[in-house]
Amino acid sequence: MSEEMTVRRIGANEAAGCIEALADVLVDCVEGGASVSFMLPLPREKALAFWRGVVDSLARNERVLLVAEDREGQIVGTVQMIVSQPDNQPHRADITKMLVHRKARRRGIGQRLMEAIDDAAREEGKSVLVLDTVTGGDGERLYERVGWQRVGDVPKFALMPNGEFCGTTFFYKHL
Prior knowledge:
Largest sheet: 7 strands, mixed
CATH superfamily: Gcn5-related N-acetyltransferase (GNAT)
Low-confidence stretches: none
CATH topology: Aminopeptidase
Strand content: 25-35%
Helix content: 25-40%
Shape: globular
Structural class: alpha+beta
Distance between the termini: 27 Å
Order of helices and strands: EHHHEEEHEHEE
CATH class: Alpha Beta
Strand order of the largest sheet: 1-2-3-4-5-7-6
Number of helices: 5
Oligomer: single chain
């Protein structure tokens, strides 16, 4: 089914017009238990404010935003790359907020997003990527499958949306 979906990079102007759809994906993921910096309940206004901040960051060329759209053009997934790094790390980027709407999971969208973010990283001149994810979660298995290297786990690093502690696993990838 992944061939019925497109993954593409969008800039600040287009992202500004997609904030509602991006908020839908974020809210769905948090309601589904994803530990992606937000707690339950996640008010829609807070999700919208987050995406407005992303748009501002895109406009400052601090990050890259990719979206996955189904055949109707609806956004069903997204991933970001923070390219703005300290002076001594111009070759590095952080991958963040890899989100796939629950209705679109198990169709290869996460893998397609991660492959596309590798390409975007190369376009940005980045050769070292880092990310973190919930220990034992679906993301962990995905990242290993697409060639990321596990660095280690930190128990009780964050909270799940329901307030329970969760461990975090850190990964890196050399391009």
